[in-house]
């Protein structure tokens, strides 16, 4: 695992033995040697799953055999490298011929060539001088003029081999790669056509794959034991690749994680968030190849994005899904919304209430083998905790903002990059830091140079607590930089939370997070930078809401004094607005302004309005027009119209007591899209009731 490159190459000798298998190889080599006889031939079978290290173990067995017993001639036969059955037979006999001594083996090679020609007339002939059947000098001429029977030819070759007194060991690796017919032909060769006395074989294969190939050729029946019994006739000495023990799996995984870890000081599995998911790793990565292939994927993917842009542990879990269940992984982007929200877009109605239908992940898991679905389900819930079953907690969820469970970060985990509809966290952080230092150019470019959708994403990342200054002075400085940006953002009443609202909330959090004893002048300087009273009130309302959530011991000392200043301005502005009558500025937020004053100094506002009525500066229609709002449908192109829902409750709190003939005027039909004060005064006729006698007392 020390190598930075992984090539899936088998070990050539025991030097790289990481699992203590040399002892097993030594015992196997001794078994092979001790069972040798020039009167018979034996077949050893080495079984193990793909990637378990069969070839490496075979190489160690050969190493020990040749080291301890140098008389052995070892040759390797690669059956799946041939193109047809005839080629397979020719290559097989050629493989045995290659290991023979050059001079003493001439007669044996000639006998093998004759045997091959009888067994497979169309096969390539055996070369005299060694090499493969496709290379070297071909045997031809008189030796093949009169071919004997196969039994005679085989007997002759056997006698020649026996006389040579050269023990031969033939390695036949990966026989499970053959198709059904090729596999049966090879087994026939080993069982009948290649059982030369003094020649031993070792066949390496994965049991499950081998049996599946045999079933595909109808040589055996599925699931009735005939495949196992068939192989018992071929293999006399079954060996197996020792499976990885749990501690070996974890040790190899830990070594790999240490190479690629960059977000935590602890690089192993033991004390990390994914420590509770070790069972998933050991279930799905059960062979050395599986583990090394997985780590190789991580080694490639982890560096593609800086550590602050993703959660590396999420990358590790998603990569585990991808290498284990490719079909499941490829389906996940289609369910982005459901995975991150935990529900579908469909509503269900129960007892008068509506809720979204929970997203069921079971259909997604149908592409996963039944015995592995538990691990797949556990991994998905760890990545997307909102899909957990009702009442169950997702205990292995990420705590990082940059997690795949958050929709704004989902795509980068599958693209392993920052796409056009995304923005780098590092870029946002750099812009905020510059703004804290008083340089707003970067932040302005990020906020105003984006589409509406991307601007919302930028602001969401800006408000991340990790990006906020820690000192009171720098918090106030950043708030001062943000106010002009809030002024420049368009008012968008067509969405529930506008970009301007996001910045106002950001400013409120910055100010409330300043020192409790911050001077009133500093806070006032920030608030009075807002253009107009309406925006100032919206900002202050968010600040008051934030303060309400604080305990009394954490409340700052300045809010009440600043509130008084804003209330003074609000009362004076509203009274002047009333005096101007129909000529007053048409703007939204008048009703909101009235509610703000009533919340703080209701009696003062009522007294001031009553004085205006006593001096005939204002009448009931003018006052009522200020409480006539306009509305439009949310989410569509704005089409503002006067709302029939007159704010009678607020009117009751500020209107002079008593009845008046005006209240009994008939309803007027007006153009609802005319939002002028004059039209609003006509609109409220017949729609307003006199305040009840106890209206103010009941407030």
From TrEMBL:
Residues 24-302 form the KAP NTPase domain. SUPFAM superfamilies: P-loop containing nucleoside triphosphate hydrolases. It holds the Pfam family KAP_NTPase. This is KAP NTPase domain-containing protein. It comes from Glutamicibacter uratoxydans. The lineage of its organism: Bacteria, Bacillati, Actinomycetota, Actinomycetes, Micrococcales.
